[in-house]
Amino acid sequence: MADSPRHAAGGRTVDLRVATYNIHRSRGLDRRTRPERIAAVLATIDPDIVALQEVVGPGLAGPGHAEQLGAALGMGWVMAPTRELGRHQFGNVVLSRYPIREHAQIDLSWKTCEPRGSQRVAIDLGSETCLQVYNVHLGTALLERRYQAPRLASWIQDRRVASPKIVLGDFNEWGRGLVADVLAEGMESVDLYPHLKRRRTYPGFFPLLHLDHIYYLGDIEIRRVQLPRTRLALVASDHLPLVADVRIRL
After folding, report:
1. How many CA atoms lie within 13 A of 157 on its CB side?
2. Cα distance between residue 18 and residue 79, in whole Å
3. Residue 114 pLDDT level (bands cut at 50, 70, 90)
4. How far is CA 2 from CA 9, 40, 122, 194, in A?
5. 164: cis peptide before it, omega within 30°?
6. Domain segments of the chain: what residues?
7. Sign of the CA dihedral 127, 104, 227, 70?
8. pLDDT digits (tens, 9 = 90+) for 99-109
């Protein structure tokens, strides 16, 4: 919670728990659509900021899962839809315990592939400088990511937007590929090896691939990384959440 020692700012630093989680429309590996399970997984993690991908948002058919998750967790949220799904918005969502001051998004869609994008959310941590959180969901095809990688990197590294910056998301890249090489030119990547024995995030019940990643730019210290493997997390989505405790000097 906001008054926890983990969140208390000391001098000009603040400790945060951030997470990235592809929730697969809140549809679990048992083929049941249950956003309350996603909320329960996130409640156990107790994050300050969460980047979600594949989220059903509001639409003509009524409220969606984004609103339900925000209400269940007591967090504000902002959505960057990429397309419609069943008369609902569908895309990326950032949840935050801290005030959201600004929001922008970029279209990364390529040819006839599924629409993709990224969002940037400025989080007010009680300092003159906001934390810039980027939520990313890239395509599954190699040529698609070859198109997306330089555009994403240019957007993130725009010097008109001040650091610190954290980039979270599903990059659909399980090895050291093009996206990682492009982003590594201007950012640090969270190395999972010192923190985790099991580093694969997809598919949830029997993970074979490491698709979800965290990058950062600015004075940020990675203090701990977790990959929750509770019974609920293993079935709630086809991805596992990736969690990092960070200390940010503002």
Report:
1. 14
2. 17
3. very high
4. 11, 19, 18, 28
5. yes
6. 5-249
7. positive
8. 999 999 999 99
Cis peptide before 194 (omega within 30 of 0): no
Largest CA distance in the chain: 50
Residue 195 has pLDDT above 70, yes or no: no
If phi over 0 gives left and psi between -120 and 50 gives alpha, with beta otherwise, what is residue 170? beta
Which pair of tokens denotes residue 88?
Answer: 């609902």
d(CA 135, CA 170): 9
Task: Map tokens 């940020």 to a residue.
Answer: 220
The 10s digit of each residue's pLDDT in 115-147 is 999 999 999 998 788 999 999 999 999 999 999
Quote the radius of gyration of the chain (alpha carbons, Å): 17
Q: Which residue has the tokens 């569908």?
A: 90
Reported residue count of the chain is 250
Q: How far apart are CA 238 and CA 31, in angstroms?
A: 10
Scan for tokens 């996130």, then name that residue.
42
The class (CATH top level) of 5-249 is alpha beta
pLDDT tens string 39-63: 999 999 999 999 999 999 998 878 8
The type of residue at 166 is I
